[in-house]
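Continued from yesterday's entry.
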Amino acid sequence: MGLLTEGQPLPWDETKQLADHVRQHGIDQFLNLYHQLLDRKGDILKWGDEVEYIIVKFDHTNKTAKVSLCAQDILSKLNEKEANDPHNVKSLWRPEYGAYMIEGTPGKPYGGLLAHFNIVEANMRYRREEAQQLLGPDEVLMTITNFPRLGCPEFTWPVDQPTPKIGPSRSLFIPDSAIYKGHPRFSTLTRNIRQRRGERVAINIPIFKDENTPSPFEEDLISIGGDTDSLNAALPDHVYMDAMAFGMGCCCLQMTFQACCIKEARTLYDQLTPLCPILLALTAASPIFRGYLTDVDCRWDVISKSVDCRTRQERGLEPLTTDKFVIPKSRYDSTTLYLSSQGEKFNDVPLVYDETIYNKLKSADIDHQMAQHVAHLFIRDTVSLFNEKVHQDDTVEMDHFENIQSTNWQTMRFKPPPPKSTIGWRVEFRPCEVQLTDFENAAIVCFVVLLTRVILSYQLNFIIPISKVDENMSKAQKRSAALTEKFWFRKNIAASTSKTANVNVNSSNDDASYIEMSINEIINGKTGEFPGLIPLIHSYLSSMEVDTDTHCTIQQYLKLISRRASGQIDTTASWIRRFVQDHPAYKRDSVVSDEINYDLLMTADGIRSGRISCPRLLGDCLLANSKTKETIPPAVQKVYSCTP
């Protein structure tokens, strides 16, 4: 969730008055740090993952599942180990937006040894077990991207009611008790985003039209306190949501990589950018919102709209009179600009940036692309400011810069080193949806890490026009995109004719050498056209000394990725959708009832724990243990069988 400054949050009217102050000093801080660390080199590869979790409380008598608002109590206990011995912990824990969410990372980053791939999954299991043992007997720590009935009546435990007229959210569906209260950042962001926008956020996701889904699909919002704003915002045949919690209450899987120098960091930022929509489609895991099956498989646009603080003028709905810019995207969206010299010519989308800030950066010897990047980030206002952090020493602090940097939530994030730190230049890979099992999450992480090694070792070029990346991001969220959509991807990926071990890598001086390919073709290869990402990884590994255990682990991970890309096994979203549609209580009306939700999450936890075998989701990678039959309700045997 970004920067967690301690202090007393300022009300929005004071925050707004200080927006230019934060911008000015944020730029000064960036300049001071940039020039101090521009020539920093020689940092070794370090990387780590961030996994977000939802705490679910099951009521086995009434067959319901709710989110448990106990994250603050759990975190206080989890953080005791770090407080007592910060250098010797196996895991680190941080709050997330929801009062039912926590975030876990490894205690220390991993390094350049291939053997580290052998401990990623084990550390994820350790984290899960560490937190799970602090929960109640009917509570489960789950890696689900979105709680399916978030925003439905009585979806929290303890039960609470929305307050549409008061509070930070003023939502028709979300009680403010669902927001984490252990840090003021979350409620402050919620309030300030709504106030800056001038109205509630408006999220409309197309409903999945099943046989008995009403047409048009429209809800009675007046009966639950709907006002003119909500009635005007809700679209027919869409699931309407109105609060930051619907987006920031989702979970994701993120990775951060430390580069050896700023040039390498900029290269990784650019080369990973075209891979963001591919990994989003491959990890799709959220087809249900507010208790309805929708016609999308991913969370991305929901989060984007949930924090869209643009005014009507900035959205182009009214003429510019008091605001400076018409801004095409929310502050949570896809990357808009490449940073390396190789990527500059592919920045084909008109960029909105602050020319005054750009000129200041250029006059301070910041290169054109980096100056544009920072000036683009800084078209945004601060939406959370603490009284204790208004006045800072710009020569040694970075809070004003990070204030705006950390609330530009893009698919990639370029991260300068913190002041007076041993940490180097980093990039953060942010599109992936979290998966049900530690095995899947470890597979995704190791796959992306290996891709970074392949890119740098073979000096590959995946860059395509930014406009095509945006187009791919839209496609990636569609229902069954991993199977049915074609994505723009670079065909000729080497700068000159080359052969990498047993894989021919096409090369060309033609910068327009990109074509539409399926996820299967991108991951597994297309004969005569593209070698495939997994064959490239195999080629890389064949040139390395890999011990037997690590080799077996990596092969299992790559097999999962390969089969999911080919359609031999389901994405998480497809599996969830199939589960709902096959459930005997489903009425083919797009509604995911309490009963279906309970069975879905119980099954997901059974798959995660190994009690239930699910070849349709995992292939033959994970097998169930002997407890399987005890956990399968007879009424849903077909659903639970997960037959591929």
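--- second protein ---
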Amino acid sequence: MLAVVDFINQKRYITGFAYFTGANLTLTLVAAFLCVMFAPTAAGPGIPEIKAYLNGVDTPNMFGASTLIVKIIGSIAAVSAGLDLGKEGPLVHIGTCIAALLGRGGTEKHHLRWKWLRYFNNDRDRRDLITCGASSGVCAAFRSPVGGVLFALEEVATWWRSALLWRTFFSTAVVVVVLRGFMEYCNSGRCGLFGRGGLILFDVSSVTVKYHPMDLVPVVVIGIIGGVLGSLYNYLLLKVLRLYSLINEKGRLYKLLLSLGVSLFTSVCLYSFPFLVPCSRCEPSLLNEGVCPTNGRTGNFKQFNCPTGYYNDLASLLHSANDDAVRNIFSTSTPTEFLPISLLIFFAIYCILGLFTFGIAVPSGLFLPIILMGSAYGRLLGLAMGSYTDIDQGLYAVLGAASLMSGSMRMTVSLCVIFLELTNNLLLLPITMLVLLISKTVGDCFNPSIYEIILELKGLPFLDAKPETWMRNLTVGELAAAKPNVVSLRGIEKVTRVLEVLKASNHNGYPVVDRDVGMTELQGLVLRAHLITVLRKKWFLPDRRRTEEWEVREKFTSVDLAEKARKIEEIELTEEDMEMYIDLHPFTNATPYTVVESMSVAKAVVLFREVGLRHLLIMPKYQAAGVSSTK
């Protein structure tokens, strides 16, 4: 009889594993197929590319409509597949895509022509909209309006100004109001699980935060552990991403197979490891007709392989949604809810899965996996302290999550506010600040932040705020001399010459220099986009002469000159057109930023970044030296 029961149980577990793995593989295939076939830029979190864009480097199709659609559907599928990733990074990318599309009234090919949209058709407003979109994404992910603003300030934006502060704050305020409105509508149960809970995701305000001087010792230890583990996680993740880049270079099929392989490995881990831990008995006060509460859908307890009245604590973490897993591990006044072995296994599993999941061809975020890893070792330390501390185990989990986040991402102010808005416990502020500062300091001793590592791995140039040491000993003139000769144009240039320059180089701007006998005069700087617009509209002159202002205003509007540059291959000119002339003076910025060739590179970098420049001209000390330029 016992053998028959064991056989039935084994068959039930095998069937459950088949359904579990099959569903996860199907959802992963949907997410990976969409990313690989339709929008490769939708894979990953998107935050490094957003940082690069706001720093001056544009990634093609990063904010397109196809990227937005694939990001939304792929994120839902990837998170539902049980992969060790979060929705927070993709939400930031989704927010920036929506902002970019709204700013230009639609896609590149099909967009609205409303007059008021022309006011956003310039580089500065595009950057502001992208920044507002990023802060709105963080706000939507964590329901943290102030944290979203500070995230944009600390992590994403390169150039910040006072007007951008209230714009991002207004954006996050709208997000919170809309979220709250949907929650009120869904509180009656008409929207499933969407309306459950409030704006506070992981509320730990019910516990009293009290600590004595000796409690600062484990708090400092948590900060040190977070810095060490965060830097180690960054180092190992870099190795894995380099391996994945070699696999992904082989083609689309290998990207799909890699994603499915990771999904299969994840399903095996999530399903098999809970069998290794013993069952725990529910507190008698929590039993409902002898059954642990919320075994069915979501909550603190999962029965899994345990008899009635018992629960599997590891399954309660692994088989819950990420948000519910965080709530479980952040739970306060529950000193016996999780066994040490379960927390240790959970930490090890999420470390391994986090390393192997990030980098596959699906939309993914780093926030939630790192929070879960950090909260696991934080709660373990709280268990080890036992009666020697007055701090609750759930609060140790909060501190552990904050420390690992800071140790990996190297953020402090924004993380501090995000965690305060997540947990709704202002009394945690002093020790949270201490943990974040320690973990960031320790992590900086080993390697850069995870986003800086990804930027370097993807080959996206990024101009740091702090110049490197060698820049102090090198002048901009010496730096320009080591580069190829600058490409310049004359004030009145032949169409053939302009076309040759645009095809031979991909610079965004060109100095306009008039050379006469014994004299060289800098007229200014002309943008590539303006040159292509002039060629496209065929605003040519039959002879070499300067034009009047009214001639230019008849042909061009501010909207024409604010549009992004098109491809030079789209320009079609006849042989007669090629022999004509263009007066570049009306399209030239006559007052560009310039520096003397004897200025140090460090000073030039500070000027370039702080003012938010795109071009900087290097002027010679003497007329005979000529004129050179750098970007």
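Residues 270 and 319 are 7 Å apart (CA to CA). DSSP finds 24 helices and nine strands in the chain. Will compare against the first tomorrow.
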